[in-house]
Design brief:
7-stranded parallel sheet; 3-stranded mixed sheet; alpha/beta; Rossmann fold
Length: 343
């Protein structure tokens, strides 16, 4: 593909990586911005900023005009929010608006960043039309599931080709939120307790390339699950221990204990009118999520995954460069051992 691309969510971790990769490939890129500061940062990368908002269809249509593809990477990924309605508005209504605006502007294809969280949805009972028949581990999972349905419905009604990309937890240099907080906490010796469950990871470079391949080779209406490594949090921390020489071992709480503790923390926070980062939906997501199989993009798009050890080494090295690690890592070298046969 060589035509002009438009990227929403370009100031985010993944969106910025997509912008950088497109520009490096010689593409002309426009980006949606809501502030002058963000516009200046993205312009410095070589992108053309367009002021607008997902809630403003007119600004989207004007920005999309003349573009061949829209990468819709904007969205809200949050847990434990007191009021999830703004997240639903952005993730669902905003995503539908992107497809409708793309159709009005004559855009041929939309690459939509969905989420692997949509796979953790318990299917509805056959014949049950009630919205509550499905079980969602979090408000975020529900919002992304319903957003995915919305963009596919808009695609069917407008004829715009939509390809969904469903990343697992995106990790790598530049990420400090979400699961990365657990990793940074462990490396700093500040993770006294945890709950074990599936840990599904995709390297930021692989996730970016997966999106570009979805534009080039993806089948409209298809969903591509990006997951380079599936393990448990316990085994993930064991990998960090092996790479760094740290011997810390957090106490893993039984799920029921963790859920009860999270419920108590929620009650106290609500009574004090404060926000908490630890809540029941976060525990449910950590404990009840499923291991993911990311072989489809490898088979159908030609995506080659980065080994998880390489991802973690690059990520730890970046943490150190940024001063995010406050204690020595006695066994960390920052390089991947050469396992080739010397003969």
């Amino acid at each position: 593909m060589a035509g002009k691309a438009f990227v929403t969510g370009a100031s985010g971790f993944l969106g910025r990586a997509i912008v950088t990769a497109l520009i490096a490939g010689g593409r002309s890129v426009r980006v949606l911005t809501r502030s002058q500061a963000t516009a200046q940062q993205l312009a410095a990368l070589g992108a053309e900023p367009v002021r607008g908002d997902l809630r403003d269809r007119a600004s989207l249509e004007a920005g999309f005009a003349g573009c061949e593809v829209v990468y819709h990477a904007a969205g809200v990924n949050a847990f434990c929010v007191p009021d999830p309605r703004p997240m639903f508005a952005v993730n669902i209504a905003g995503s539908r608006a992107v497809v409708l605006a793309a159709a009005a502007a004559g855009v041929a294809r939309v690459v939509y960043t969905s989420s692997a969280a949509t796979l953790d949805v318990t299917p509805a009972v056959a014949g049950d039309a009630h919205r509550g028949a499905r079980r969602f581990l979090s408000h975020y999972a529900r919002s992304k599931y319903e957003a995915e349905q919305a963009v596919l419905e808009a695609s069917a009604s407008t004829g715009v080709a939509v390809v969904c990309v469903n990343p697992a937890s995106v990790q790598g240099p530049g990420r400090t939120s979400g699961t990365a907080r657990l990793l940074i906490g462990y490396l700093n010796g500040k993770l006294p307790a945890a709950v074990n469950g599936p840990l599904n990871v995709i390297d930021i470079a692989d996730c970016t390339l997966g999106h570009l391949l979805a534009e080039e080779r993806g089948v409209p209406g298809e969903r591509y699950l990006l997951c380079g490594a599936s393990m448990t949090l316990r085994s993930g921390l064991a990998l960090l221990s092996r790479l760094t020489g740290l011997t810390d071992s957090p106490r893993f709480l039984p799920p029921r204990v963790a859920l009860a503790a999270a419920g108590g923390i929620e009650l106290v926070a609500r009574a004090r009118g404060k926000h908490t980062r630890f809540c029941r939906e976060m525990v449910r997501t950590l404990v009840e999520g499923a291991p993911y199989d990311g072989t489809q993009p490898a088979r159908e798009l030609g995506l080659v995954y980065t080994p998880i050890e390489t991802t973690m080494r690059r990520t730890i090295a970046w943490y150190l460069e940024q001063g995010l690690i406050t204690r020595p890592l006695p066994g960390f070298t920052g390089s991947t051992p050469d396992t080739s046969d010397p003969a």
